[in-house]
Amino acid sequence: FSRGAEEISWKIEEILEELVQHQEPESLQSYLEKALESSLHPLGKLLRALTVAFQATYSGIGANRHLLPMAQEEVKFYSKKIWEFYQGLLRLALERKGRAPSVDADPSLGKGSSLVLPLILPGFYPELSMLYMLQHQREDELYCQGIVELSLFPDIQLLEFLDVQKHLWPLKDLTLTSNQRRSLIKDKCFLSATECLQKLITTVDPREKLEILRKTYEELERTASRLLGADYRLPMDDLLPLLMFVVSRAKSVEFFPPLEYFRVEEFQGKLLGFGVGCVGIQHLGAEIHLIRDLMDPTNQGGMLDFLLTALESCYEHIQRIRLHPKENSHSS
Question: CATH for 125-320, among 3.40.47.10, 1.20.1050.80, 3.40.50.1100, 3.40.640.10?
C-alpha cells in the first residue's frame, strides 16, 4: 500500500514540476492540450467528468432546442472552471518550490478561459452542435431552398443576377472545350475562394472557422487583384455579392470528427439527416451562430467579426430568394 502511495505521490510531483516548466505563452497551450487529453492528468480527469455530465444532460430527450442557451453557457462556465483549476495547481506547484505566484502575469493570459474553450469544445461538440441545428432548422431549410434556386444558374448568369460588378467577372477562368458555351459553364469562377469556404465544417474550433473565413476573403481579393492587374481592397459593396456567389457555389465536404466525438448514434444520424438535398454548406445558420456565440470576445468589432457579419448577411438574403415561387409564397 505504501509503495502504491509513493508511486501516486511521484506522479503528482511530476505533474506539478511540468506545470512550472510550461508557464510561457508559447508552451502553455500545447501543455494544456496534452493535459486535457490525458486520462491520468487532473485536468484530463476533470474534463472527462464534465463531458459525461454534459452528455447525460443534453443527449437523448435532453436534445431540445430550448436548452441551447443553457448548454452554451455551461460550456463557457466549464472553460472558466478548468482554467481556475489549472491556476490552483500552478499555485500549489510554485508554493512547493518556495516560490510565490507571479503577480505580473502575461496580460494575454488574463482571460485564460478563452485559451481553454477551443481545447475542450470537441468533447462537447456532438450535443452542442445538435442543439444549434435544432434551434436553426427552419432558417437552414429556407437557406437550402434559396441555394437550390441559385444552383440552377450558370456562372455568368449568377454573377449578373447577384449584381457583381462586371470588371470583377473572372471570364478568363472560363476555358472552353469545343462542345461548351461560356454562358452555360458552372462552378468555374472564384474556385479558390469557394474551395476555401467549403472547409468551414471541417473543424469544430471557432478560431479555425474564422480563419477559414478570413482566407476566403483573401482569396476573393487575390482573384480581384489578378483581374484588375493591381492590388485591390474589396469594399463592402463588392464583397457582399462576391461572397454570395461563393456561398451559393460552396458544397458540404465530408467531415467526420474522431470517433470519440460520436458518443451517441443519434447524433450521426441526425447530423446527416438535416439538410439532406441541400447543395450548399449544410447547417450554415447553425455554424454561423455557433461561431458567433463561442468565438474569442477579443475578435468582436474587428475584421473577423466584420467578415462573420457579411457571411450572416449572405445567409439571410439567400433565405429570401425564390425565383420559382410556390403557391401562397412571395418571390424575392
Answer: 1.20.1050.80
